[in-house]
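User: I'll paste a sequence; please echo it back and then give the predicted structure.

Assistant: Echoing your sequence first, then the prediction.
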Amino acid sequence: MPPPALSSISARLIQPLLREWQARGRDLSVLAKRLGVDLELAARIDGRIPYETWADVRQFCMEETGDPTFPLRATEHLDARSLPLELYLVGSQPTLREGTRYAMPFGSSLVDGLNVQLAHDGNSGFASFRRHDEPFHPPELAEYFLLCLWRFTRLVAPASPPPRAVTFTHRWPRHGSPLTELFDAPVRFGTSEVGFRFELPNVELPVASADPGLGQLLAHRAQAQLAENSTAFTLRDRARHWLRNNLQGDEALGARLAKAMHLSERSLRRQLAEQDTSVRALVDDARRERAIALMERGTVNLDAIAEELGYGNASAFGRAFRRWTGQTPSAFLDRQRSSE
């Protein structure tokens, strides 16, 4: 079950997507205007954005380019100019192991609710990533996030060999198939944890950028960022988050959403229109995301999915799913299984 708090991430995590967009000859201002992305905020080392902003950019880039691997390829644009504050903290210490432990208290500034656990057995180690005491989620962010961390590792410790394995709890890849190629390591789905398995000596490799003094200054900045926790989320962001967990119910969704946002339905619709969206569009997005997540977890009872998404029957859900994806739910499940 998703955590109750609105998920937010470091604004810098959107930078690789923006750089890839530009690298493909696309106009960044068009993307920013279409999706309402604050480019100045995205460039700030200590800026934060709602998770939904990252998800919107990810989906837009894939749709506009026709490339489902766009987010994977984008991680190649993670460089020293676009690192989040917390990764600078890791890179400030003499080794990756020391850096990871140094940055651990500030994980929630990187991704809301993030916790990193390091375990070892002999010469083998495992780094497990969790959010709010559950394996790192959602799946599309988990793949992207771990690839960013692998790019960062090669950036600060170029001699680092690939991990022994990369593990995810979801059953199928969410960004396309070339994860094994980009990690240069076996990728396993449907496991109990999200993380890296590695040879223990690898995390003791020296970090060329190590600067403990700078690390202390950055730690003070990260602490202040955690204390503020004052990111201003838009009505659209809050509405999307609420809808992700409240699609079921007898009362009309628009009326229930207005109550949850402490607005009249008229005010809700007017303010959402000012943010270039509508109740109908937000509900449709929430249903699509939830449907795909349920089917990825192996839920194949279409009546149960239809009920959870607020549809009257499986036929209505099937029509909506074909509109979203261009295929039937059964065809979607068959394609996902074939990629295992």
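The longest strand covers residues 114-121. The chain has a mean pLDDT of 86.
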